[in-house]
């Protein structure tokens, strides 16, 4: 019976990663359109390393091939899309190697990993190579091979620059035609959100809580002095916040299955994300917030369970 339940979980996990991979491939299209062959090479370096490490790690540690859960392909695509097109190829390779060899394999696979492997891999290279991770080209120059340095929206927000939505066009922000990571096309991410709602309504709950928390904090504590709407759009569409909301907060190994807890988990992660953005040393700290939420949520959930168990006992004593 236990073996049957495990097989069912593996199948569900594989199906979820398959859906996520389809959404990530959709994000690759505008990335390649704007950044040309550099985007392709960064993604190939990332996915290739993740698949190779997963294959080697599975054979060495478990004497079996782990690629069937599709986690390695998902991890490679996710890491690649969070990086700039001009990043050296060893950076996504090291990020994926860390994600697979340090986070996924030692803990038994994607079903039992304590944190999202892709988030951990990105956090690792952020600490080790911040200048490469946050060195973004001006939109459109990568495809021509000129590599003109630009400033991302997240970088502007970190400096508390007084930004209007013009000359930064709303259409450019929504279509991803701005300096930033490869996977920043908000229009495609909105489509992924709709796809997630239709295909995985339970997974959407945690994403909804995350986005609501980030939106409320962006409106209440703006980092720009050009209005609440500008703050909301710039916060949600900058960096990898929207990306993490769709692909990391829904991770099956770390997201609670109970709908009410999934909602509060998403809210908790969203608050951590915004606080880390306000006070963090990096222009994008969402992956650190995801890791903290992954590690601390079990303790919070257990504390809630203990409180819930004590309340009925108190009521029984009062009745007696």
Topology overview:
Blueprint (H helix, E strand, L loop, with lengths): L1 H34 L1 H25 L9 H11 L8 H15 L12 H12 L1 H4 L2 E2 L3 H4 L4 E2 L2 H6 L11 H6 L10 H14 L1 H20 L7 H10 L3 H7 L11 H21 L6 H34 L1
Helix pairs in contact: 1-2, 1-3, 1-10, 2-3, 2-4, 3-4, 3-5, 4-5, 5-15, 10-11, 11-12, 11-14, 14-15
List keywords for this structure.
Ammonium transporter fold, two-stranded antiparallel ribbon, 320 residues
Describe the structure.
The protein has 320 residues and is mostly helical. It has one domain (2-319): Orthogonal Bundle (Ammonium transporter fold), CATH 1.10.3430. 70% of the residues lie in helices and 1% in strands. It has helices at residues 2-35, 37-61, 71-81, 90-104, 117-128, 130-133, 141-144, 153-158, 170-175, 186-199, 201-220, 228-237, 241-247, 259-279, 286-319, and strands at residues 136-137, 149-150. It has a two-stranded antiparallel sheet with strand order 1-2. Helix 3 crosses helix 4 (90-104), helix 11 crosses helix 12 (228-237) and helix 14 crosses helix 15 (286-319). It is globular. It starts with a helix and ends with a helix. The mean pLDDT is 86.
